[in-house]
Amino acid sequence: DWTMGNVIADQVADIKQRVGTKRVICGLSGGVDSAVAAALVHEAVGDQLTCVFVDHGLLRDGEAEQVEKDYVASTGIKLKVVDAQEQFLRELAGVTDPEQKRKIVGREFIRTFEAAERELIAEAGEHGETIEFLVQGTLYPDVVESGGGTGTANIKSHHNVGGLPEDLQFSLIEPLRTLFKDEVRQVGLELGLPEAIVWRQPFPGPGLSIRIIGEVTAERLDLLRQADAIVREEMSAAGLDRSIWQCPVVLLADVRSVGVQGDGRTYGHPIVLRPVTSEDAMTADWARVPFDVLSRISTRITNEVAEVNRVVLDVTSKPPGTIEWE
Ligand code: XMP
């Protein structure tokens, strides 16, 4: 019968049989899907699996550390971390168009991943055979959506850092293909992954690059990271993590408004809060976050984040507004 325990047992047996003694690679994004898929494959083939985590510098505060430390500590998975922050910033310099940003992040991610794969093969020395299998955290809704031709794929080029194009010449292992998100979380819990990973809210592959409206720079990323950390802290403290689907925090980097802070006039940037409720991200409603929580967030951001003098709330449903601003 259909329990997550059985799903795990079946998948593990299946993967063992398919992979034999070959090597397997998996791109970790920090998100739930790739984390659970990798943990499942690790259960089946142990050290034949190596995960690659590309730190593109577009992550939120603490996310890279979470993958580097917590995930490895709880799974024992072999992990190769590639620091590609400078490369991504360089490629994104001067770019303001949302689709352009998405394409650049996608392209650079694949370049970095392929280089990491070549390194892994070289490191294995004379025993270095090509890596035959690639793990993908594809879920059932992904399968349906890409085959179903709903047309939504044309709205934005979704770039999932957990996923790679198939022309990379791997055989794919997709152990979550029959599962919905809540089932994936169940599998993750049963495999002993930390709750902080299992209950993570969705986060887009292009990361903070599409939450800075305007050019992406190191300084702006820094500023947005601080504001985002405050929002997550206050949302968690208010116990809203599971009732809210996600809350993008957006920096309007090219907009300035006049404010008064401390002793004088300021001319700073607005931060937009975009808390939404949703079942599947296809449609969404703006979340009715309690006023006192919003108030704490606003006070803290304007006090603690230099150059931000205004916090605004996005009260648009999807449609017409998408969840992310770009
Ligand atoms: P939108 O903005 O299209 O977002 O309403 C719907 C959901 O998808 C996430 N999102 C992405 N996820 N790669 C991803 O893996 C992407 O390029 C991407 N763009 C948006 C978004 O955070 C929301 O959960």
Automatic annotation (TrEMBL):
<comment type="subunit">
    <text>Homodimer.</text>
</comment>
<comment type="function">
    <text>Catalyzes the synthesis of GMP from XMP.</text>
</comment>
<keyword id="KW-0315">Glutamine amidotransferase</keyword>
<dbReference type="GO" id="GO:0005829">
    <property type="term" value="C:cytosol"/>
</dbReference>
<keyword id="KW-0067">ATP-binding</keyword>
<keyword id="KW-0332">GMP biosynthesis</keyword>
<dbReference type="GO" id="GO:0005524">
    <property type="term" value="F:ATP binding"/>
</dbReference>
<keyword id="KW-0658">Purine biosynthesis</keyword>
<keyword id="KW-0436">Ligase</keyword>
<feature type="binding site">
    <location>
        <begin position="29"/>
        <end position="35"/>
    </location>
    <ligand>
        <name>ATP</name>
    </ligand>
</feature>
<comment type="pathway">
    <text>Purine metabolism; GMP biosynthesis; GMP from XMP (L-Gln route): step 1/1.</text>
</comment>
<feature type="domain" description="GMPS ATP-PPase">
    <location>
        <begin position="2"/>
        <end position="200"/>
    </location>
</feature>
<protein>
    <recommendedName>
        <fullName>GMP synthase [glutamine-hydrolyzing]</fullName>
        <ecNumber>6.3.5.2</ecNumber>
    </recommendedName>
</protein>
<keyword id="KW-0547">Nucleotide-binding</keyword>
<dbReference type="GO" id="GO:0003921">
    <property type="term" value="F:GMP synthase activity"/>
</dbReference>
